[in-house]
Design brief:
CATH class of the largest domain: Alpha Beta
Shape: globular
Helix content: 40-55%
Order of helices and strands: EHEHEHHEHEHHEHHEHEHHEHE
Radius of gyration: 18 Å
Distance between the termini: 23 Å
Oligomer: single chain
CATH topology of the largest domain: Rossmann fold
Strand content: 15-25%
Length: 275
């Protein structure tokens, strides 16, 4: 059985790359819903339906464990997937006896932020992630004395997807988005979207050395390694052939180039339909 990684687009490839660097021995299946990206401005109901379709597809690809790399889907759909859909799926298919699991990316990043922050944590993400207040709620459970300041940054994903990472336009947008967080002197910044680590260098330059910008890919990889160590009943069922497959719901030359840039020149996408 395999490990599935789902993202609304191709940003999850950044997470997957860090996971494979840490845990190269396992078989992975990546799914990017590139035909319907971004999820950030969609309703919670729609995000849930899209996420459910993606997890179902990955289960059918023999994935034992699925990681929802998309922050928007993690904040808006993960809990319902875990608490409502998985039990229904178990009743319909009888596969939950095999211990299938669905995890998100928010909890491990929050745990890291709670460890390193002393005063104020900033969060940037899509409108959906920010409006859900998922990071605020989870940080409150772990370290209630922390002040959490959020800023929605909806233009960043389209700019990154267009490959405008080094453009003056992106730098100006970043400075405008980050100004309010810089003004209140946060000490830790959470990049609440899988795409954002490609801008980490630029973000660090704007925020300065006094702000710790968390690398979500490295954090999720460490968390997964720890999870598998604690759950041998799952780890023992995982294939260890270092085999990687990549699926998308829309493919173009642009997406292929992004995949090669963010993951590897060896990446080969197969187009599928979710339903």
């Amino acid at each position: 059985m395999k490990i599935g990684i789902f993202d609304s687009g191709l940003g999850g490839l950044i997470i997957l790359k860090d996971i494979i660097k840490k845990l190269p021995q396992y078989d992975y299946v990546y799914l990017g819903d590139s035909a319907r990206v971004p999820y950030g401005n969609r309703s919670q109901e729609t995000i849930y339906e899209f996420t459910k379709q993606a997890v179902d597809f990955l289960f059918k690809q023999d994935c034992q464990l699925v990681i929802i790399a998309c922050n928007t889907a993690s904040s808006e759909a993960l809990r319902k997937i875990q608490q409502e859909w998985l039990p229904e799926y178990s009743n319909e298919t009888g596969v939950m006896g095999n211990g299938r699991r669905v995890l998100g990316v928010i909890k491990p990043v929050v745990e890291k932020a709670a460890q390193v922050s002393k005063r104020k944590v900033g969060v940037i993400g899509t409108k959906g992630t920010i409006s859900s207040e998922a990071y605020v709620k989870e940080l409150g459970k772990l370290k209630s004395q922390l002040e959490v300041i959020q800023t929605a940054t909806p233009l960043l994903v389209p700019l990154i997807e267009e490959g405008w990472i080094k453009s003056d336009i992106t730098k100006k947008v970043l400075r405008k988005y980050l100004r309010s967080l810089k003004n209140v002197n946060i000490d830790t910044l959470i990049l609440g979207c899988t795409h954002y680590p490609v801008l980490q260098k630029e973000i660090k330059g704007i925020m300065g050395k006094s702000v710790q910008v968390l690398n979500s890919g490295e954090i999720v990889a460490e968390s997964l390694a720890d999870y598998l160590q604690r759950h041998s009943e799952i780890e023992s069922k995982l294939a260890k052939n270092s085999d990687y497959k990549f699926y998308v719901t829309d493919i173009s030359q642009h997406y292929q180039e992004l995949g090669e840039k963010w993951f590897s020149e060896d990446v080969k996408f197969e187009k599928i339909a979710l339903k």
